[in-house]
Write a structure and sequence with these properties.
CATH superfamily of the largest domain: Vaccinia Virus protein VP39
Number of domains: 3
Number of strands: 19
Structural class: alpha/beta
CATH topology of the largest domain: Rossmann fold
Largest sheet: 9 strands, mixed
Radius of gyration: 30 Å
Low-confidence stretches: 157-162
Distance between the termini: 122 Å
Mean pLDDT: 88
Strand order of the largest sheet: 11-10-9-12-13-15-14-16-19
CATH class of the largest domain: Alpha Beta
CATH architecture of the largest domain: 3-Layer(aba) Sandwich
Strand content: 15-25%
Helix content: 25-40%
Shape: globular
Length: 620
């Protein structure tokens, strides 16, 4: 007796088991967070095929925490056929009763869409139509952002952390070093190793971006198009075609692959890098590549425009912590290097606006096109890498450009925020010294900080990393006094000398301040200045900066402008910042200075008498 054909309902159940649950595993949704073929209290008698919740099945809050309804059809259902349309109608009704702003429809194998419950428009994430079941955080983003007239959701891919695991990436770089060695690229050829590695990473990043929203001709070969038997030639063809596109022309001098590599060796590098997703993250592969592959001379050069990402994150979060609602902003880094400050500011503002449920297409467009500005004199390395880093965060880096001199470029009263790690050393540019008031020495750090104050709008705010001389050198007392007449200094963070290793051991500080309005200038502030001495930043001191548990930067964020601990952090009254202290802003001077012990003349005579007796006994 022949078995009958399975019913459609049985086929749907089998397809869910084989395909949908497999997809859940891929995106990290536990089965325990899914209920199948049941009705909820809100949906009444209508049973949803799959309900996905932020709480596990056994939790009493499961239904309150539901973030997605997925209506499933069998794999033979096609887009917009009668069965698909039925699923859309059923999904809309059930999602509406459950209070969901959107729902998903899938044929379990190949076709998936997400629809707005209000107007049935198709939902996109980061401008790309939803065609797969997304991860749980993306489902949450869909439910919080979709509403009538808004169907594009902003969700940073890989934003659950800082992208790939840095230690795993370091292991891959060690593997790449062995491949380079086999190709005859070894000691003395570090620059070639670095450029080749960064080229592979950037090409992977561009390919990931284009897989979500293709903006370049389909004839251009991308990551998945390269043929292993001739990969070296395919990569070079991709570089030539990509840098011929106006949007990528800035990468022309930054991309190249060593000609010593054979097709098979290129394929080995390809296989190693393929395991990482770079687009949509703030993963700092530039810093890791230089750390692993550069010699001391190259590291020194790279250190000129490198600021550790964990430090950048702290500074950005302190400075932008009150920006909760969208407004027209202008954020600048006039010495942008590889763009770390701009990337983190872009991501943080999105996070703040999303948390306020105010991030929409118009706000995101303004962030991408108008908000961020960066300049650097290094157009060969820094600016291309800065624009690439912004691309990783899903911003084009439109307003990042090369300048001959940031001191000439910066205009008066132009920016709401300036975040920077300023250059220091002798200045040989063409900015007229008579335009400066605080000091007219040809020192980059002195001129640069004053120019930043000038470029801020009244009420604008800065967070600037400066060398220790500017903060404590007694020769610069007049400079600091004039600075404090123009700004309100909110906080000073003292950084230990290993923060920038292995590139430099320069002692640095972070100055966090607000530019006063014209009527408020001319006298010292009355508010005390909060100081914090960062003894540990989460990484071992020395050239091998491996992670450790001790991390003062976390406490800085928690206790900013409030924590008070003798010898570590606290407020310093402005009476202490005076001509007697040379207007010192050094945290160590104010918090760890050894102060003289005052004793009476009687006690001094007694101490001296006892000392004479002891010396007499010794000499007897």
């Amino acid at each position: 007796m022949m078995a009958g054909k399975p019913t459609r309902r049985r086929r749907e159940a089998t397809d869910i088991d084989q395909h949908v649950y497999t997809r859940f595993e891929e995106v990290g949704i536990p089965r325990s967070h899914v209920r199948r073929d049941i009705a909820t209290m809100a949906s009444g008698r209508q049973r949803g095929d799959l309900w996905v919740s932020r709480s596990p099945d056994e939790s009493a809050n499961f239904e309150d925490k539901i973030v997605a309804l997925i209506e499933c059809k069998d794999q033979f259902t096609t887009l917009l056929d009668l069965d698909w349309q039925d699923a859309m109608e059923q999904g809309r009704k059930k999602a509406g009763k459950q209070g969901l702003r959107a729902f998903f429809v899938t044929n379990t194998k190949g076709i998936t869409r997400c629809y707005s419950s209000s107007d049935m428009s198709e939902v996109s994430i980061n401008g790309q139509l939803v065609t797969e079941i997304p991860a749980l955080p993306a489902m949450v983003a869909v439910q919080t952002q979709v509403r009538p007239g808004v169907s594009n959701v902003t969700y940073p891919v890989n934003r659950t952390g800082a992208g790939p695991d840095p230690n795993q990436f370091r292991m891959s770089l060690w593997t790449l070093r062995q491949i380079y060695r086999a190709a005859g690229i070894s000691k003395g050829s570090e620059a070639s190793m670095i450029k080749t590695t960064l080229t592979f990473c950037i090409l992977k990043l561009i390919s990931e971006q284009q897989s979500r929203r293709r903006t370049i001709p389909n004839t251009i070969l991308l990551w998945d198009d390269w043929r292993k038997g001739q990969m070296d030639r395919d990569i070079r063809a991709s570089i030539e075609d990509l840098t011929g596109q106006p949007s990528l022309a800035h990468l022309k001098d930054a991309l190249s692959v060593s000609r010593k590599l054979t097709a098979s060796q290129c394929a080995e590098i390809y296989d190693e890098i393929s395991g990482y997703t770079l687009y949509g993250s703030d993963f700092n592969f530039f810093g890791l590549v230089y750390e692993a592959l550069a010699n001391p001379e190259i590291k020194s050069d790279f250190g000129e425009f490198y600021t550790p990402r964990h430090l950048i994150k702290t500074i950005v979060r302190l400075r932008l912590k009150n920006e909760a609602q969208p407004r027209r902003l202008s954020v600048c880094d006039p010495a942008c290097g590889t763009g770390g400050f701009l990337v983190e500011a872009f991501l943080l503002l999105q996070e703040h606006y999303r948390n306020s449920r105010l991030l929409n297409d118009e706000v995101l467009r303004d962030l991408k096109e108008n908000t961020f500005h960066g300049f650097d004199t290094n157009g060969e390395v820094a600016v291309p890498f800065a624009r690439t880093n912004m691309m990783m965060a899903d911003d084009g880096g439109t307003n990042i450009r090369t300048t001959a001199d940031s001191l000439v470029e910066l205009r008066q009263d132009s920016y709401d925020y300036i975040l920077a790690n300023i250059p220091y050393g002798r200045y040989s540019g063409r900015a007229p010294l008579n335009n400066f008031v605080y000091a007219r020495h040809r020192r980059y750090e002195l001129l640069f900080l004053e120019k930043i104050v000038q470029a801020l709008r009244p009420g604008g705010a800065g967070a600037v990393i400066v060398p220790d001389g500017l903060v404590e050198n007694i020769s610069y007392d007049t400079y600091r006094q004039r600075l404090l007449l123009d700004v309100t200094m909110e906080a000073v963070l003292s950084l230990h000398t290993s923060v920038f290793e292995p590139y430099t051991t320069e002692k640095t500080y972070v100055l966090i301040f607000t530019k006063r309005r014209q009527a408020e200038r001319g006298q010292l502030q009355k508010k005390p200045i909060w100081h914090y001495i960062v003894d540990n930043d989460g990484f071992q001191k020395g050239k091998k900066r491996y992670p450790i548990l001790e991390n003062d930067l976390e406490e800085v964020q928690r206790g900013y402008l409030s924590l008070n601990r003798p010898g570590k952090c606290g407020f310093v009254a402005m009476s202490e910042v005076s001509s007697e202290s040379f207007y010192s802003l050094s945290s160590e001077y104010h918090l760890r200075r050894t102060r003289p012990i005052e004793i009476s003349a009687t006690h001094f005579e007694k101490f001296l008498s006892q000392a004479e007796k002891i010396l007499g006994a010794i000499n007897a």
